[in-house]
Design a protein that fits this description.
Length: 500
C-alpha cells in the first residue's frame, strides 16, 4: 500500500482533523453554557439550513475536481479556474437571496428568532464553496500540509469570532447571539481562503513542474462530459445528508411538540440530541475521515492506471481499519457515555442519547469509506441510491417514533443511525458485486473479537492504573479514555502492518 508515504499523509490529515475537532469541542463547551440547550437547538437548525444551501452551491464539484486533478494536474487546473467562476456566481446570487429572504426562511424553519442567524450565514454561502474548491484542487496535487494548516487556521478564526460575538450579543437577544455564533463560518473561511491563495502563488514553480509531468493531452468533450457527470452524481449524493439534517431540524422539533412538548422544550431536546450527543458520538470518525481523505486520490489513480490488485488491497485494508476503529470507539462511547457528557458539557442530560447512538463511529466510518471506494471506481450511482434509501428510512422512523410520548431520545437515535446503516449496507452490496476481492477477508472477525477482549480487559486495567495517581476524577477519566484509544491504535497499527 505504499506504507511510508500513505501512513505519513494519513497521520498529517488525522492530526489536522484532530486539532480542528478538539478546538471545536473546546469551543462548544462555553457555547453550550452561553446559549443553553434551546440556543444550541436554534444553532443546529440554522446550520442545517446552511449545510443544505452550501451543498446546493458547491455540490460535487470539489470532490470531482480532486479526483480529476489526481488523474491529470493540467486538466485539474483548467477545471479549477472554470469551476471557481461558476461557484462564485451561483454562491453570490444565493447569498444575496438568503440575506434578503431571511424573515421568510426563519418562519419556514418554524422559529422567527432565526432571522438574524440566517442573515449572518449569507457571507459564508459565497466564501465557503470557493474554499472547498481550492482545497480539493490542492488535494488532487497532494499538498496535504497546506490543506491541514488552512483547516486549523479556519477553525481558530471561526471559533474566536463565534465566541466573541456570542458573548457580546447574548445580552441583547438569544436569536442575535445565535447569529453571532454562525457568523464565525464566514470569517474563518475568508482567512483560510486567503492563506491558500498565497500558498498557491508562492508554490507556483512546483505546481508548474507537476503540470509539466502531467499529461498534456487536450481536454476532450468526452472528458468534460465525464467530469460534469461525476460532479452532478456526487452532488446528488452529497445533497442527501444535508437534506436529511434539514429534515431532522424540521421533523424532530415538530414531532416532539406533537408528543406534548412546548416549542422551547422541543428545541432544547433537539439541541441535546443534534448539538451535544451527535457532537460526542461522531468525534471518533476523525480517523476514518482522515483515512477516506488520503485514500481517495490514491485509489482513483490506481483505478485509472488499471492496477486492480493495488486498488483492492488498499480498499480492503481501509475497510478493515474502519471496522476495528469503529468497534473500539463504540465501546468507549457505551462505557463512558455519562462521563463524556459531564466532562464536555457539565450536564449528563445527553448521556442517554449518547448511549443510544454509541455505534455511530462504526456505521458512519464504514459508510464514508465505502462511498469513497465506489466513487474512485467510477460508480456514483450506488452511493446515491444508498443515501436516498437511508434518508427515506430515517425520515420515516423520525416521523413515526417521535410522535410517541416518552420516545424522544430512542426514536431520534434510531432515525439518525438508520441513515448510515442503510447507506453502508447498500454500498457494501455494490462493492461485492463490482469487485468481490475487496471484501474477501474484509470482515476481520478474529481481529474484531481480539479487540473486544482488549476492550473488556483493558478498560478496568486502565482505570485501575490511572486511579492510582493522585489526580481529580475528571482527569482520571480523561486519562483512562486516552489509554484505551492508545491501545486501540497500537492494535490497529499492528493489524495494518500485517495486512499491507
Amino acid at each position: 500500500m505504499g506504507l511510508p508515504i500513505f501512513a505519513k499523509q494519513m497521520a498529517l490529515r488525522a492530526g489536522a482533523i484532530f486539532i480542528v475537532k478538539i478546538l471545536g469541542f473546546a469551543a462548544r463547551i462555553p457555547l453550550f453554557r452561553l446559549l443553553g440547550a434551546e440556543g444550541i437547538g436554534l444553532y443546529q437548525m440554522a446550520y442545517s439550513f446552511y449545510g443544505l444551501a452550501l451543498t446546493v452551491i458547491s455540490g460535487g464539484f470539489p470532490t470531482a475536481l480532486a479526483l480529476a486533478t489526481a488523474q491529470d494536474h493540467r486538466k485539474g487546473w483548467q477545471l479549477y479556474k472554470s469551476a471557481t467562476l461558476l461557484l462564485a456566481s451561483v454562491g453570490g446570487m444565493l447569498a444575496w437571496l438568503c440575506y434578503h429572504l431571511a424573515p421568510s426562511i426563519a418562519r419556514w424553519l418554524g422559529h422567527s428568532s432565526l432571522e438574524a442567524a440566517i442573515r449572518c450565514l449569507a457571507p459564508a454561502l459565497f466564501l465557503v464553496p470557493l474554499l472547498f474548491l481550492l482545497r480539493s484542487f490542492l488535494q488532487g496535487l497532494e499538498f496535504y500540509g497546506a490543506i491541514a494548516w488552512s483547516e486549523i487556521m479556519e477553525q481558530i478564526v471561526r471559533l474566536s469570532v463565534m465566541l466573541l460575538l456570542v458573548t457580546l450579543w447574548i445580552r441583547t437577544d438569544l436569536g442575535q447571539a445565535v447569529g453571532g455564533a454562525v457568523f464565525g463560518a464566514a470569517a474563518g473561511a475568508l482567512i483560510a481562503y486567503l492563506f491558500l491563495l498565497a500558498f498557491l502563488f508562492f508554490r507556483r514553480q512546483s505546481f508548474r513542474s507537476a503540470e509539466t509531468r502531467a499529461s498534456i493531452s487536450a481536454w476532450s468533450d468526452s472528458g468534460l462530459r465525464l467530469f460534469l457527470y461525476s460532479a452532478l452524481s456526487i452532488s446528488a449524493a452529497r445533497l442527501i445528508v444535508p437534506i436529511s439534517d434539514f429534515m431532522d431540524a424540521i421533523i424532530i422539533p415538530s414531532r416532539l411538540q406533537h408528543a406534548g412538548m412546548t416549542a422551547s422544550e422541543a428545541a432544547s431536546v433537539f439541541g441535546q440530541i443534534a448539538g451535544v450527543a451527535a457532537t460526542i458520538v461522531y468525534m471518533p470518525t476523525l480517523v476514518t475521515s482522515a483515512l477516506a481523505f488520503t485514500l481517495a486520490a490514491k485509489v482513483t489513480a490506481d483505478w485509472k492506471n488499471k492496477d486492480v490488485l493495488r486498488f483492492s488491497r488498499r480498499a480492503r485494508s481501509a475497510i478493515q481499519i474502519g471496522i476495528l476503529w469503529g468497534i473500539g470507539s463504540s465501546w468507549v462511547l457505551w462505557h463512558y457515555s455519562t462521563d463524556l457528557t459531564l466532562l464536555v458539557f457539565s450536564d449528563d442530560a445527553a448521556a442517554v442519547p449518547v448511549r443510544y447512538m454509541f455505534i455511530a463511529p462504526l456505521l458512519s466510518g464504514l459508510q464514508e469509506l465505502t462511498m469513497v471506494i465506489l466513487w474512485a471506481s467510477g460508480n456514483q450511482k450506488a452511493p446515491l441510491f444508498g443515501l436516498a434509501a437511508g434518508i427515506l428510512c430515517s425520515a420515516g422512523l423520525n416521523f413515526g417514533l417521535l410522535g410517541i410520548p416518552g420516545f424522544a431520545y430512542a426514536g431520534a437515535a434510531m432515525g439518525l443511525l438508520s441513515l448510515d446503516l442503510v447507506s453502508m449496507l447498500w454500498n457494501l452490496v455494490a462493492i461485492s458485486r463490482q469487485k468481490r476481492t475487496i471484501l474477501s477477508g474484509s470482515l476481520p472477525i478474529r481481529r474484531a473479537l481480539l479487540l473486544l477482549l482488549l476492550c473488556l480487559a483493558g478498560t478496568p486495567g486502565a482505570e485501575w492504573l490511572v486511579n492510582l495517581l493522585p489526580l481529580p476524577q475528571p482527569l482520571c477519566t480523561i486519562l483512562s479514555i486516552a489509554v484505551l484509544f492508545g491501545l486501540f491504535s497500537l492494535f490497529i497499527m499492528q493489524t495494518y502492518k500485517k495486512s499491507s
